[in-house]
Amino acid sequence: MAATSRPSKRSGKNAERTHFRTIWISDVHLGTTGCKAEHLVDFLKHHTCDKLYLVGDIVDGWKLKSGWYWPQEHTNVVRKILTKAKRETQVIYVTGNHDEFLRKFVDYRLEIGNIRLVNEDVHETADGRRLLVMHGDLFDVITRYHKWIAMAGDALYEGTMHFNYWFNRARSILGMRYWSLSAFAKQHVKTAVNIVSTFEDSLARECRRRELDGVVCGHIHHAEARQIEDVTYYNCGDWVESCTALAEDMNGRIQILRWVELDHLNQTGRDKVTPLRRADKVA
C-alpha cells in the first residue's frame, strides 16, 4: 500500500531540507575507497530527522586494520552526523560485522550526548508498529559461522569493485551507462539469490518469535521494503553502490530514499551521477 502523506518541511534557514521522524542508513563503509561519502554528506545536508539510526558497517574496521585510508570526505560524514546529534537529533549507532570492534563497548551502555551505541534496538513507528533494528549479520550463516569465508568474500567484493571501476571507465568512453557486476550477481546468480532469501526469511522468523511487526536491517547492500507473510522487511541498502536510505514520515509510513543514480565514470575517473532525490513510497 503506497503512502500518501508527505514529509514535513523545515522553515527558516532549513527551508530546503526535508524533515522525517526517523531515518535509517547502513553500510557506509567509511575507510574504504568504495564509500560514496560525498553523496552521503549531500543527503544529510538535505534531510533532518528526530531520530537517526546508523544500522551497522558505518566504519569498516576490517579494511582499516589492513591499511589506513581516510580522506577528508569521510571526516565530513562524521562531522555531519555529530552536528545532527548536537542539534537534538537522537543518533543510535547499531553495530555491524565490519565495525564489530564496537560491540565490546555495548555492555557499558555507552552514550555520548545524543549518541547511543547498541547491538540492536526496537523502534516504535508513529502508527504503533514495533520494528527490530539490527545490522543482520548474525542471521547470515556465512558471516556468523565461517568468518574466514566472509572475509574472503569481502576481498572478492572489493576486487569486483575495482573491476567495476576500470570496466565502467571503458563503458564511459563508449558513452555507455554504469553497470554493476556485484548487483547483477546478487540479483541473478542462483546461489546468491538463495543466500539473500534465506537471510530475509531468518530475520522474519526472528520477528515472529519476538512478536514484532517488522525488521529494519542492512548487511546485504540491497534496499528493499516488502512483506514476508505477516512481517514487514526493510533493508537500508548501502552507500557504496546504491546510495539509499529508509525514512519514516510523521504518520509512520516508511519509504526507500534513492539519492543518486551512478551513471558511469567520467574522464577523471570520478563518479558521474544523476541526482534522483526521490522516494519510493511504501507502507
Question: Brief overview, please?
Answer:
Helices cover 33% and strands 29% of the residues. The chain is α/β, with parallel strands linked by helices.
Structure write-up:
- With 283 residues, this protein is an alpha/beta fold.
- It has a single domain, classed as Metallo-dependent phosphatases (Purple Acid Phosphatase, chain A, domain 2), CATH 3.60.21.
- The chain is built from seven helices and 14 strands.
- The longest helix has 27 residues, at 147-173.
- The protein is globular, with a radius of gyration of 18 Å.
List keywords for this structure.
single chain; 283 residues; alpha/beta; Purple Acid Phosphatase, chain A, domain 2; 14 strands; 29% strand; disordered N terminus
